[in-house]
Every structure is written in C-alpha cells, then in structure tokens.
Records
---
Amino acid sequence: MRVLGVDPGLTRCGLGVVDGGRGRSVTAVAVGVARTPPADELPSRLSAVADEVERWMDLHRPEVVAIERVFSQHNVRTVMGTAQVSGVVALLAARRGLPVAFHTPSEVKAAISGSGRADKKQVTTMVTKILGLAAAPKPADAADALALAVCHLWRAPMANRLAQAEARAAELARTHRARLEAAAKTIRRGDARR
C-alpha cells in the first residue's frame, strides 16, 4: 500500500510518500515540503499548497492519505491555518476517491518511537532508522509527514481488524435481538390462545 503522509501547515506543509510491504516493512518513496510565503493572502497560500499536493498525488499515486489531526495549540491563528490546510488536503483526496485517515500527534509518536511524548528530534531519528535513510529528512515537517505515512501503514491493519470485529459483533447483536423478539411473539401468541 502506498500512503501519502501530510503534516499540514501554511508556511511549511510536510509531504511524505511511503510504500508498505509485508509485516512492518516500509520504504520511503519521496519526501518534501510545500512552502508558502507568510506575507501572501490566505486564499493564495491555500491554493499553492493545494497545487503542490495535487502534483504529488499525480506523481506518486497514493492509495490513501494520512493527515495529522489538528490539535489545540496556544496560537489560534496557527491552528486555523493548519485546520484549513487539512481540509484542503482531505477535499483533494476525496475528489480522487482516496480514503483519508487522521492521526493525532501522540498516535504518530507512539507508533514511531514507542512513546506518545517523543520530541521532534526523536521522531526524526526513528523515521531515519525505520526507513533506512542516508540522512535525516529536513525540516521536521518533512520527517513528520513520513512518520504519518509509516504510522498509518502500521496502524491500519489493526484498525481494519477492529472495524471488522465491531461490524461482526453488531450483526450478531442484531441476530440475537431478532431471535429474542421472535421468541417473545411466539410466547404472546401462545398466551393469547389460552
């Protein structure tokens, strides 16, 4: 499976493409950053990020897009820009029929380093090792995008199994309720005949 990881941001939007193989085997395909000048107007910046993400989708043909889930920060302006970029990327993926997965920063850190509290340097070091890269991806946004893709590849099989188990449990519950209702009707009919 090929995953496009996106670390959303207006000034620097990290992009990373990773292929997943058997088990936990992962291979880096591409990594980079879409940049926009802070002095530009918001619509222009969002358009520039969208153009770059579309270029990456055309070039690398991902099967799924993994985006970092926006979390509350002290700087509301930064959160808004990050959320807007996330929305643009999710829209681009949806228009292509690509599934979108959102992962929290702590999920990504835990998947990559074993600790949900790992710092950016630890994540970058682990991504470099996991993917067998000759040099650490820079800036941190690029490393984070690769981390998102790897996180999704490693978490998706378990999430799929959980979803299948939940669906099976719901079906069993529906069947059980239907049997109980049928038994209750039979009992009521028997009581009515007496």
---
Amino acid sequence: MKDLLGKAILDFQTNNSPQNIITETDISEAEEMDINYLFRNFEEMPKLERKALDLSYGKVLDVGCGAGSHSLHLIKRGLDVFPIDISQNAIEACQLRGLNNAQTIDLLDIENQKFDTILLLMNGTGIFGQLKNITQYLNKLKSLLNENGQILIDSSDLIYMFDEDEDGGKWIPTHKEYYGELTFTIHYKGETEIPFNWLYVDYNTLQNAAHANGLQSQLIYEGDHYDYLAKLYI
C-alpha cells in the first residue's frame, strides 16, 4: 500500500500543502473528502461517534485511530488509551498531536494485552475486508477483552444503495458473497492507492456473527441513514 490516506493526514498535521482526498468504490462514483474532517473535535463529531466516546471506559484500544481525534478526546477524559493504525504516516501525525504511545500495528498482531473498551469507529467493520473474515476478527477482539469489557463498533447497511424492482426486492450483484463487500480506491496528489477490500455489515448480520462466536450484541444507536452503533460483549 502507498498509504495515501496516511500521507494526507500527515500533510495536514505538518502543513505540507495538504489536499483533499478522492475516494471511490466499485458501486459509487468518486467523492471528495476534506481531510480536515479527520481532525474534528468532539463537538463536531456525528452523534454516533459522540455516543461511543461517552460510553467508553477503562483501558481503551482505539483501532484504526486515523488522525487520533477520538483518542485525544478520551485522554482528556482521563482514560488510558492505546491508539493503533496500520498507517505509519497516520501514527506519526498522532504522535505529533501528543499521542505518544500511538503505534503502527495490525489489530490481529496485538498480543498479551487486555482492554475494557475496544473502539472501531468510522465504519469499524471495514477492516474485516470481506464477510468471510468476520469470525477471525471477532474472535481476536473477544480475546483482547477484560472481564466486563465491551467492543463498540459502527457500520451501515448498504442495502439502500441498490435499485428496487417492481415487487420491492433489491437488485444485488450476484458476483459478491455479500452486498456490503466493497472495493475502495483512494486518490491523493495525483497518486492512486492500490484498491483494497472494505466491509459494511448490516446489524442483523453482525449480531448473528457475534452470537456464533460467543459474543452478545446490543444495538446502541441508529442513525438517519442506515448507520448504527453496536456494543458487543462476552
């Protein structure tokens, strides 16, 4: 990976002529995203994210921390936070913002640690990549939980993006195992990232997968556009 999203985050943090990024998927047109959005404060965050941060307690693992905005808010609340991301550039930006213990590491590679709260926000299911990987990730997350710990994860049901037929059914591509599996491409400063898999999961599918892997599931919040926040726990 070229780590273009991380490069945009680091450019913004260091004032290195940052530009907006362009994202596109295999089911949607290219869209421009202001990189400043990743540096928002608590008051500027969507209600779903504010709810997740309000519910966080104890020792927190912030998975896919990006520019570190969620971690910074939790540290202000006095929580012990471990921000991680696979983007070395993003982690460098986090460290420049004062998150000294931010680390470039894949969730699956964390060992010998336990947490009270594990946060996966801004479509936290995305890192699963494809539906076939959900068991692997849920079991890893479960192994990192302290007793009475919680996983706070958000996603969206993408069913709204597909056309309806005359009977109210949906025209869903048959070449995919699951309609929430997307291929993402990012463009930044004339460069194009290697396309990567990104997973959106409807709540019922997440709930069923959680139960199948020894986790309870609670729907915490539903947004106005098929998005939701869920709590998973043992």
---
Amino acid sequence: MPTRRQILTLAGAALMTGTTASATALETVSPAAAGFQPDLDQRLAAAQAAGRLDGLHGIVALRGGRIFFERYFRGPDASWGTPLGEIAFGPDTLHDLRSVTKSIVGLLYGIALDRGMVPAPDQPLLAQFPEYPDLAADPARARLTVGHVLTMTLGTEWNESLPYTSAANSEIAMEMAADRYRFVLDRPILAEPGQHWTYNGGATTLLGRLIERGTGQALPDFARAALFDPLGIGATQWTRGHDGTPSAASGLRMVPRDLARIGRMILAKGQAGGRQVVPADWLAASFQPRARLEDGRGYGYHWYLGRFEAGGFWRGAIGNGGQRLFVWPGIDLVVAITAGNYDQPEQWRPPTNLVREVILPALAG
C-alpha cells in the first residue's frame, strides 16, 4: 500500500518558515523551584522500565512559564508516513504535530476573526463559498454554520477511523479529490447540524480556506506573522497536499519547546511579549464545551476539554501518534509531548501514562 505521504503530497512539498531556533530562550528552573518533587527522573525511569512510555520522543513541562522538566529520547520517526529513520531527538528537532495542527488553526481563526477578516461562528457556511451555488441551494445545507465547522458538528458523512493508507479514509479521499473544498461541503448529511460530534479533518480544511481567503495570505504565512513570531516560535514546516495546499488538518511540524510556548500563551489569556496575541474572549469561547465525545471529554472550538483525577481540568490539543499539548489553568501547568506511535491502537497510553504516573503525582503539596 502507498504511504500516507505518497498519497497526500508531492515530493519535497513542505514549507519551512522561521529561524532554526526559537527567537527567545525559555527560562529553566529545577522541579523544586516549580513546586514539584525532585524525583521526576526516577518516576520517569520506573515508567519506562515498565514499558508504559514506549515511543515517546520529547517532553517539555512548564510551570510559571518556566521549563522545569525537559527530556528527549532516541527512536524511529516518520513524517506523514515517510520513515525518517532512527532519530536522536533534541530541543531543535522538528516533529510532526499531526492533528495538534487543528487546534493551532483554531487559534488562528480567532485572531483573524478579531481583525474582521473571517466570518463569525453564527454565519451561514455555504455563504462563504459562493463558488458552489448548487450546494448553497440545498435547504438541508442552508442550516450549516461556521460554528458547526469549529465544533466538528456538521452532521455530514466523514470517517477517519480507517487507516490513512486507505483511499476510503475521508481525509485521504479529500486529498485525492479534484476540489478538496467541494468534497468536504458536498458530503451526505446524516444528522441535524450541531447534534453530534464527528472527528473531521475536512472541517479544519474549511477553516484554513476561510483564513487564507480572508487574510489574503497563505496559512503558514499568516500563522508566522500573527502567532508564531509574536510567541518567539522558531522554525516550523507545513506539509502540503498533492494540490500544493498546506494541510490545515495535520501538516505542521514544530519543536516541543515551541508547542509549549502556545500553552504558556493560553495560560496568560492570550498574551505574550507584552501584547495580546490571541483575543482573550476567543480563548474563553474556544474552551467552552460545545460538544460531547463518547468517552466523556468535551470539545470546544477545535480544542479538547478533559479532566485528570490529579491536576483537575485541562484544555488540550491531540495528534496521531501521541502528540499532545495539555494546559491546566488551575495549577499553572503546561505539558508538551511528542511521540512516534503513529496509527497504533494504543497510541494514547504513553502520553496519558506520562501525565498520570510521572508528572502530576510529583506535584508538591
């Protein structure tokens, strides 16, 4: 079977932006200075020895905006299905974020909305795509709004549970379509919009199109100017699909420290470097539970909402293979994780075990 990258991309079709290292260094402190027990490495080693952290590539944990725990490992990696070989990961090693990209696009939409460049969530979806008058004339689709895109509650047919090597996977089918946007908008309607959450990379693709159309910039360029540079984020890559479109759903590559910077900005209610980077009201709206997943987690505007027994409620971004950004406002904690367990059924376990068995139990007091 062809790899995901062979299906989705042209050879070498990736965009690199930014400098090779983060623009400003993050301060590093000891675990004790951050209010954690000093035995984090022992906890980590015990979990690794028990085989509970297999496939982890990088960990960056911040409290009070400062790094108190940062570790990298060695292991095989891939980018969109193309093997990269055995990698000795470090602070400057770019890593696939996969669907963490979706949550970052959600932030970009809020920035563009604040600038009056994209439609508000309550606006009709098909009105934003006048090139498809036949779809807009469908009464059933007239009920679709931008908000249904942001919450992945379109009620249309979409299935990403199949392997990403299969043309029957909806994201792959979208990438192979002659017109990716028509493909997403023309899916059969199965339920009333707003009633059910269905994981849908096509929804993020629509957001990326609205951002590009409204700002007049390619998605990576707007991300660099509006979010990455203000946060001091260094080099990034954005993989393109077969038609040259940067993948809004899963194409971003970034180092873990810079992913943690996004979490730090969230804890600061959208501020960084003395300026408001993401509107605080957009963050508040993004973290409202607007849909319920089968496992009990909530979903806002492209962000997951959950709770661990220790640490309390978190807001997070989740990507295939074990990519994670967890943010705990109640304890001022950010954890960014990269891993290489792509497409594996139990891929969720290593990052969850890391949080539950290593980091949160070490919180002092």
---
Amino acid sequence: MFLPILFALLFLFSSSNAADFCVGDLYGPQGPAGYSCKKETLVTVNDFVYSGLAAAGNTSNLIKAAVTPAFSAQFPGVNGLGISLARLDLAVGGVVPMHTHPGASELLVVVEGSICAGFISSANKVYFKSLNKGDIMVFPQGLLHFQINAGKTPALAFVSFSNPSPGLQILDFALFGDDLPTDIIQETTFLDVVQIKKLKGVLGGTG
C-alpha cells in the first residue's frame, strides 16, 4: 500500500508544471511583475550569460560617471529571479547624485579606487563612509543615496539589486531636469529663482 502511494507522489512532483525560470520575452508585454516568459523551446544558454559589464562606461558627461546595467531589459535571464547587477565607473571627481531605487535594495562592492557612499534614512539620519577596494555597503530600498569618487584615480564598483528592474529616480533631474514650474520648486525647496533657473539650464529643464 505504501509503495503505490510513494510512486504516485513522485510522479506528481516530477510532472509538476512549476517553472525553473522565466527568461524575459523582451518583445512581449511588461507588467509590474516583469516581462512575460519567453517560450522555453526558444531559451538558450545565452539568455543566462551577459558580457555587457566587461567594458568601462563612458564617463565623459556632466557627472563624470557611468552606470552600465544588467537588468532584465539587458539580461533577460534575471527576469523574475529578484536579482540584477550593474557596473559603476567614476572618473576623478565623478559623482552619482542623490537618487533612489523604488523597487530594490542595493549592495555595492568597490573593485578599484575609493568611493564615498551614503544614504539618508526616513528619519533623516545620514549614514556615509569612504569605501576602499573590497569594501561593501548596502543601501536599503527606496532611500536616497549617493556615490562620489573620493580618490585621485578612477573608481570602479559593481552593484547588485534585489529586483531585476530596480527603477531609478535622480533627485536633481526630478527637480531641475523636467518642466516642473520654477515657482513650485521655489516654494517647496526654499531655493531662489536665480539658482533654480541656473540648475534648470544645466540639467535641461524648462518652466
């Protein structure tokens, strides 16, 4: 009596329809849970391999920094797995301004150089430190945080996220890089109009 029941259970679990993975179909619809799944018959090993983080990003820009993502949009194998990665290159004087990732916590590991990094808690307490090669720092989900090259040589770090699409909002661009009217910014930030218009000019905002 016991053996037939055991065999029946083994058959039930071995024939389960539970998927091992959900490689993102980048040509299909995307919802809050991520991309829809690519047909398993079309999945190859290349869906689980990504080489895009091997090359340094272009830091010839306003912030002298580059973030190269390996999110589900670039690396469909991480779709649905609750993980992703990115490469962070900081030239001398480079900075990643105050920003948040609404959908994920972040873990940063310094590979080269020195990076001053920190975040602000919801109680407005500041946690920051200069990190060196091999140091790791975590940034809790949704909190404002930043990274600055704290040395005299280029810095390199890799960051992992607890979401294949962590999202991003940069505070400076949210305030000064769009069409939010100057008078509203003035009233909500206590900055003067001249400074606001100067920042809008630098960051491409209007209004």
